[in-house]
């Protein structure tokens, strides 16, 4: 495998965790999954974003940092590849959407202090799907607190991700996941597996799933 640290990213409901599980299984890789359910502020945030956005983002920052820091220190004897279903910079991107300007500046200072201590992935897999598809996926997984997420919020997250990837020229497999069905169509996972066998330069490399 050409890439030792692979990160899967995308909007809410894009299929990040599903794909990460399947890739880790095929690659016999160590799997790092975001423990979003441990964040006590998440359901409260969707009910009252203004009140709970800052503690929500601080909790995620601390949890993601601890998880990825542990990854650096813990060597796996039989697993040379790591697959993660989130990018640490996700903290900053969501904070940019969710926080008022003054709180975001404070959050950004904290982020900049700690993110330098973490490894950046060798390659990013970004799952891009239209908001209508994201909403359909969100309904199917039936997390109660997610069912009222507005389209505008998902558009904002999508735009923030894609702008960040393009501005920083990150080595990215940019997957059109409009028709993605990783569980029922093994060819979709295989297309990504085949893509991971190639050498890529920096920037976005576009792949469509049939």
What does this structure look like?
The chain has 210 residues and is an alpha/beta fold. It has one domain: 3-Layer(aba) Sandwich (Rossmann fold), CATH 3.40.50.300. It contains eight helices and six strands, in the order βαβααβααβααβαβ. The protein has helices at residues 16-27, 42-47, 49-73, 90-98, 101-115, 131-141, 151-167, 186-195, and strands at 5-10, 30-32, 82-84, 123-128, 172-176, 204-208. It has a six-stranded parallel beta sheet with strand order 2-3-1-4-5-6, sandwiched between helices. The model has no long low-confidence stretch (mean pLDDT 94).
Biggest sheet, spatial arrangement of strands: 2-3-1-4-5-6
- Helix and strand element order: EHEHHEHHEHHEHE
Distance between the termini: 25 Å
**What is the CATH level 1 assignment?**
Alpha Beta
Structural class: alpha/beta
Q: What fold name stands as the CATH topology?
A: Rossmann fold
The assigned CATH architecture is 3-Layer(aba) Sandwich
CATH level-four homologous superfamily name: P-loop containing nucleotide triphosphate hydrolases
Q: Give the strand tally.
A: 6
**Low-confidence runs:** none
DSSP helix fraction: 40-55%
What's the overall average pLDDT, rounded?
94
| Number of spatially distinct domains | 1
């Amino acid at each position: 495998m050409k890439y030792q640290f692979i990160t899967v990213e995308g909007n809410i409901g894009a299929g990040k965790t599903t794909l990460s599980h399947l890739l880790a299984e095929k690659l016999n890789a160590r799997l790092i999954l975001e423990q979003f359910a441990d964040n006590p502020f998440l359901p409260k945030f969707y009910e009252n974003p203004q009140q709970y956005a800052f503690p929500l983002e601080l909790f995620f920052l601390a949890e993601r940092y601890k998880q990825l820091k542990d990854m650096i220190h813990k060597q796996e004897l039989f697993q040379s590849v790591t697959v993660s279903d989130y990018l640490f910079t996700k903290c900053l991107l969501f904070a940019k959407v969710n926080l008022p300007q003054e709180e975001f500046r404070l959050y950004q200072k904290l982020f900049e202090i700690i993110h330098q201590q973490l490894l950046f992935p060798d390659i990013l897999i970004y799952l891009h799907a239209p908001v209508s598809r994201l909403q359909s996926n969100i309904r199917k997984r039936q997390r109660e607190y997610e069912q009222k997420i507005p389209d505008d919020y998902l558009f904002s997250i999508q735009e923030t991700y894609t702008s960040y990837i393009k501005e920083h020229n990150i080595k990215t497999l940019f997957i059109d996941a409009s028709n993605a069905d990783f569980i029922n169509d093994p060819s979709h996972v295989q297309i990504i597996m085949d893509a991971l066998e190639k050498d890529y330069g920096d920037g976005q490399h576009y792949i469509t799933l049939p």
